[in-house]
């Protein structure tokens, strides 16, 4: 694994616990973690259960006992590490957004297409059981032709103008702001659940607080966009870090000719489904026949944020073991990147999304 | 009153009951109702409590004992009746949208500006106690600088492709579809609560079902638009009649630097408020110090849809009696009309809203 | 009508508006209202739309043009007025609880049984569309054998120890406290929805604040009781005026072998239903085929507290016009009274409810 | 650890992950797991991360490298194992209910009082951050004098009469049914949050389905009871496995003179709090200053069922390391057992709870 911060912790938990819940043909061994600070990396290795640690990610590629590279760094280093790892014959799991630019993402997708190893981009919210159930319902046609997708990702951690200039607020490191960080998630979630791709968008972005302790904010605070999807659906999106009181509200509502569904990550064990114009049913997605849920606890005993990563690792390992292509692929990540770029360039004008 | 259908019934209830709850310096007498069908109008008069009935709206203008004309007809006749009524010295209450075109709305606003009578456009949702409380909180600065308005009006009554071509689906009568019918409400509500006007929008509209029993649908089924507001807020709007399972979900969320609020008309007695980034509080807007609520029932004994009209009539009569200008004015209605026009013409391009 | 306070206002609204929404074979005329204070009664008559007023309820009985007597006074006068009105050949609608004692209630039920006029006790919550729908679902067997009823009526208007000694806190006037005032409602609601009678209860009551400005509190602040029902269900009840933050939370949950339902009056337009162990569906009880709802507004346009009374008057008038027995009868009111008495006397011991 | 089924899995997860999130002065080593079936125990050890396995719990007591014994067996073996483990100088964590009878529980509490090792009963719901926050609010006086506790634990896994006779439906193994299994949790939770003990109860129990595939049901399906608490609060409880559609709804509402709170485990990351009679605020209990939450993820990234056990192990290890007494103690477990016995014997009569 490369990176040991927020995502590093989440991924480590997943690697460490996946076999306690899922029967898998392979069992991961947590060989080595890589970070820039030697001490912090050593401490992270001890705490999170990694056998070794290093400060040079190239070490991982050189080791024969490392077959998988899990990239949990900021977006600016994704392309370099991923392309090299794939070239070294490794399987690669890469945090989202896939890259900071379309150009980088395209290189990564190209590398993935011709590599021997498997590759996957870590849109972990696909692995929320409720989101997976949503996808299953739409794919089974239970909602009929999809008319609307309404997706929001609302946070509030930079509302305070005195909040400092962390790396996520710098374009050179993060690529974009709310748009790439959380907007990427709702683009992927909306496309994944509906099975439709965005074909065009018009959007607006805004930086409400332009100067913070530490310097100039060079990314967006909020991004709003609407668009058309490949199957005829209308889509609306809003990603913001200025929704006071909303902590991690990834929400998506889908309206189809035969029914609708609604999800909010702040109540992650619930999926709301309406059929035939009737009321919305609150489904606790903890039943044995619900996606992933059967591997965990009895009905009504919910999962937490962490477990989206465990489910994700399960799917990645399953794909590697069975020789199938994991999803979402780097190509999927590139497609999201193209939408992000279109929104960034839109400034209120309609942009078609090239394939 | 002109018109006796859905809006006619709602307004009649309000005229009939307003003095049972509010102490007013004037008491309305329900003189005469006008409709096209003589029998239906006579029956409506009897059922709703109107002393007389007629099939010619000009009769109302000729009568000295009629001081107020309440226009509850489809949008295509608003301008003619309203301008004539104002010219005849009457006070005019007109259903929304103010007109079917900006040109008509502009004529009405002009007439209103120079008339002796008072005029008001019937955006009744302003008179939901929870919406009025929302406005009060923002105006008092309790939410700080407003960053986001997120408004939706979701219905589902035309999801079935066999639903026939009623007048609301015909451009010649209704002007537009979801956009003018329910989109107008959320534009007004968003502007009213925030105290900011939309200064530019980019939008998309769609007609999902183009042919229905009875003929060609000539209005939009859904309209999505995003925009910028005069005070720096970002706004997103979605009006649709294709949100299966959503019956009358007028929703608005406002995020400010100091707090947020949320309202959904399907739970019309509730306003959700967050302060300082904390959780959202579900306020039952039925306390004596809440707008309008003190005139009604004890705490926890909620109001219904009908009562938004009673509250509206109360405010209109109060303005007439005290010689103040009722709000929203025809000028406010015109401003909404300009937004509607901009959305209709946008097709994904950014349109500035002229004052 | 006798009484012009809270209930008098609510009933008056119902009498005044019932024919604007319901097609009835008879139309009520609001002849005369009776109260103790001449001025207040005159003012109430004017405001609420009564043609005449008096301070002696016997006047109503003497008038040939009064066929219905609606009793909205405190419980201590119910028996005298109702028995006399029935003896005078009037139809009688009486506020709940039917009386302050079982003895009074038994006399009233006896009088009703042999009277020519129709009689009904005003458990208005039966006329909430959602409650009526709940009853319909259980009666149709959709929930299977009923196992549990869980009913609460939570208010908070006397939490403040400085709240004064109003009539509802005096045993001589009100009979009992939370128990008879709001406990009576949940007993009736639970029995009505399930179609089962309570056959035994064990209960506890408490007066948290025993002295208030104005004197000694002589009724209970809260009553808790559990019991067994005639069809084998287990029932639990809690009525309190000390549930801070709960304004008028009449709640009932019913669990059956095939499904469950849940209702809370603070969201009175919603009924939550679960079938076959699945999630709970939030039904907006505003569809044309829902009880009462078809007479009112389009789907999603909810009713308010007031309209439970309109629906009640509709049923009462319908019964009178068609010569059927309105429900709940005085006998039903007596049965509730027997439960109240059993709870009052229980002090933690099990009491069987005599028929 | 003794036992490897449902609770064994949950506790194992906690032992394995606690140091990845909490900084503790001691780090647990997972030495040996004990079960009756050699193969199943071996498999459980491998899957859950235990170094060794055995079929005789006495082996654990004989090992010097085992300092803690975690008892996850059915209630009938708790007393024997716990008393022996304490006599052997081990620290003991024991699943709830503490025992199947008051006599057993009393012996355990006595053993704990005089033992060198620490002991704790595993009422894991105390370690839900929202429940811990509730306790903190009440202890700080923010709700004022507590008037009401209203606790329910609703499940539905035996609604189907064809569900077989598992061990939890047999009195010889489980002691009691819903009462001891889930009723014990709400008794502990109610007493813990309020800081008041139950001083008397009156209750009713019922077995709705008496014969099942596999034999006679010898425990209750449901238990309802109400009571008085040491601080003057009134309490109501309902534990049932027949609440169709409710999966794991441990709910508690507390009403105090200054405010109220509400919790439902089916939405375990939320605590609803009302202050001064105002609306209820939905607090997402994921902020850094919330109990336990700071050790986990950023705000809005919720925990799952599993993590209540991790938090519990953290507290147990902290107590052992610092030489303080963990809570809830075996004496607390005995007190709950006395309430269970009183409810079982009540049959509608009031029973005082002896200390």
Architecture blueprint of SSEs:
4 copies of one chain form a homotetramer.
Chain A: H1 6-21, E1 32-34, H2 38-48, E2 52-54, H3 58-62, E3 68-71, H4 78-87, E4 91-95, H5 102-114, E5 119-122, H6 129-139, E6 146-154, H7 171-174, H8 178-194, E7 198-206, E8 211-212, E9 215-216, E10 222-229, E11 234-240, E12 249-256, E13 259-264, E14 270-275, E15 280-284, H9 306-322, H10 330-346, E16 351-352
Parallel strand pairs in A: 1-2, 3-4, 4-5, 6-11
Antiparallel strand pairs in A: 6-12, 7-10, 7-16, 8-9, 10-11, 12-13, 13-14, 14-15
Helix pairs in contact in A: 1-9, 4-5, 5-10, 6-8, 8-10
What features would you describe in this structure?
Chains A, B, C, D: This is Gfo/Idh/MocA family oxidoreductase. Chains A, B, C, D: Residues 1-122 form the Gfo/Idh/MocA-like oxidoreductase N-terminal domain. Chains A, B, C, D: Keywords: Oxidoreductase. In chain A, helix 1 (6-21) crosses helix 9, helix 5 (102-114) packs antiparallel against helix 10 and helix 8 crosses helix 10. Chain A starts with 5 loop residues before the first helix and ends with a strand. Chain A has helices at 6-21, 38-48, 58-62, 78-87, 102-114, 129-139, 171-174, 178-194, 306-322, 330-346, and strands at residues 32-34, 52-54, 68-71, 91-95, 119-122, 146-154, 198-206, 211-212, 215-216, 222-229, 234-240, 249-256, 259-264, 270-275, 280-284, 351-352. In chain A, strands 15-14-13-12-6-11-10-7-16 form a nine-stranded mixed beta sheet, covered by helices on one side. A three-stranded parallel beta sheet of chain A has the order 3-4-5, sandwiched between helices. Chain A has a two-stranded parallel ribbon with strand order 1-2. The first copy, chain A, is 34% helix and 23% strand. Chain A is of the alpha/beta class and 355 residues long. Chain A is globular, with a radius of gyration of 20 Å. Chains A and C meet through strand 15 of A and strand 15 of C. Strand 15 (280-284) of chain B pairs antiparallel with strand 15 of chain D.
